[in-house]
Structures are given as C-alpha cells and as structure tokens.
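Trying the structure run again after the queue cleared.
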Amino acid sequence: MKLPHFLSALIRGALVAGFSSSVQAQAATNSLSKSVALELGNGVKMDFVLIPAGTFMMGAVESRVDEKPVTKVTITQPFYFGKFEVTQEQWQAVMTNNPSYYKGTNLPVEQVSWNAAQSFLTNLNERVKDYRFRLPTEAEWEYACRAGTTTQYSFGDGDGALAEYGWFTGNAERKTHPVGEKKPNPWGLYDFHGNVWEWCQDWYAPYPGGEVSDPAGPTTGTNIVMRGGSWSHGSHDLRSSYRFGKFKRDFPFRSIGFRIVAVPVIK
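Done. Tokens:
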C-alpha cells in the first residue's frame, strides 16, 4: 500500500531526526576522554568514568510493584559518573568536616542527607569551574549500574557472585568498607551493589511507562529516591532495578551516601 505523500515525509523526517540525534550523541562521546580525574583541593582527586548515550529498559517485570511498568528510557547525551562513591577524604576536602559514623579516609562518606549532598555539590561547583556537578537522575543511575546488561545485577541473574561485587549483610560484618575493593561493573564503576545507599536527584514516584528521554522525575514530592542497597541490606535490595523511597531530603543515616555526575561546561 502506498502511503500518502505527507505521511511518507513525516516518517522520513522522524527517521532522519532520530539518526541525526544518534550521530550527534556518538560524536559527543567520541570527543570526550573516557575517564577524568578532577582536583578537589589539597591534592585530593575524584575519578569519573564517561557514560555513553544510549537506550535501556528501566525497571523489572517480575519484581516489586514500584519497579513497574518497565519503561524504555533514552539517555540522549554522554555524561561523567563517579567511578566510586564519594569518600570521606573527598567530602572533607570540600566541606572541611566529616559526618560519618564509620571513620576512614577511603570509606564512603555516610550519615549524609540529600540536603547535605546538595551543599557538597554547591561548594564543589564554586571550586571547580570546568564541570557542573550534580546528583544523578534515577534513570541515569540505573542506566550506569546496568552498564548494558538486562539481568538482575550487572554481573548476571542470581546473587551467587554478589560477594565478588558488593558489600551487603552476607559479607559486610555490619559496617562500610573502602571503595573499590570489589569487582567493577562492565563500564568500570565500583560499588553499585551495596556498601552505602546512593541518593538520586529525583522525587520518588511511579514510573511513566512507554518511552521517555532523559526523565527527571516529578517536580514535587515527599521522599527522595535512593539506589544500590547497602551493607545493612540483603541481596534482593542490591538489584539493579531496586528502588527505595522512604526518606525525606533531610534524613541522614550511617548506611546512606552518594556518588555524583560531572557535566563538562561548554565554553
């Protein structure tokens, strides 16, 4: 059946636009370094890994209600993501204090509320001018955690190998551990499964379903999304799709930390 001329033109335009966006995103990825180490002050650095643009299925079919409906998400631009959770040394370099319950230079900073994480970001943005720093959206977090995988964890289905990749109730001995001691995910990011919960930027809310690009969650809400599980949680809560949204922005706890996104400033 021959399509009307105007409909054929619309389809061709959509295909060209989609192809053009894909080419632009790939070009942006190719122009950026695969990793960067940024100076925070006093000789302290923070490592970031380049996350490419792409599309993934967010959520899980056979799981909790709040992980449904599975939503097709496109991340349209590459971004840098912290190779590790923010450490106490890095926090102290920026904030000159240490709120953590478990003390150690290379331990993840914890007992940090969402509001406190925002204060860290404000200070860091005043200090480092070539990048803009922020918390990840929930979509960016799961996309980076999955690292191209579609399984329960970034290393596969089932928790048999979880102890090789993360800290949880099965191996953590009721405390945090230095970042980077376990195996990374396929994109070279560490500790996505466990150690400490990680704040996201988004309010906790149901998934939209369908197809979306660069979702940032609702504009208002009550609680903030956290991801990744922690040393005090079981393997089920460390899955790539698991969501936790029970705490408000001012809530700190010794199993809650964060990692950050860095976006180059275009001059």
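The helical segments are 5-30, 88-95, 114-127, 138-146. Worth checking whether this holds up in the mutant runs.
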